[in-house]
Amino acid sequence: MLRLFVALDLTEEVRRRLAGLGGGVPGARWTEPETMHLTLRFIGEVPEDQAMDIDAALAELRAPAFALTFDGVGVFGAGRKARVLWAGVERNEALAHLQAKVESAIVRCGLPAEERKFSPHITLARLKDAPADRIGRFLSDRGLFRAGPMPVDRLTLYRSHLGNGGAVYEALRDYPLDGAVDG
Question: Mind telling me the catalytic residues?
C-alpha cells in the first residue's frame, strides 16, 4: 500500500517567508520549510495498481499554469481544540479549477469524493494544548502576512512515509501545467 497525496510545491523564497512566521506559540510543532506544500488532494493508502491508475489520470490532466499569492494566517479549531496554524491563499479561480480537476481524476480512479470543502492553505504548525492567548497573539501579529505572487507550473504526486519523527514526503512524479516552461 502507498500513502499518497497531490500537492503544489513552493518556491524557496515563499518557504523562507513562511518559515519566518514561526515561533511564539508554546505547544506548536513547526513545519520544516523543506516539507511545506499546498495539498490539492489527500488520497490516503491505496494499492500499487490503483496508484498507477492515479498516476495515469494525473498525467492526462490539462490546466493552465498560474500564479498564487499567499495572504494572512489562521487556525483550524478553537480554544483548547486548536490543532493547526496555517497561512492562507488569496482567492484564485485557476487554483480552484486545478483542484477540481485533480479531484475529478482521483474519483475516476475509484476513490470516494472528498467530503470536506477545499480550503487552500500551508500548514505552519500542528498544535497540542497551545494557550489560546498565544494563538490569538500569533494571529494578530502576523495577520497582514502576504507573499508572492508565486508561479505555479506543475503539480506533484507525493508518497508519505509515516515514522516516529513525523511524515517524510517522497515526490513520485511532477505533472507540468499548460504553458509551463521547463527549466
Answer: 37, 121
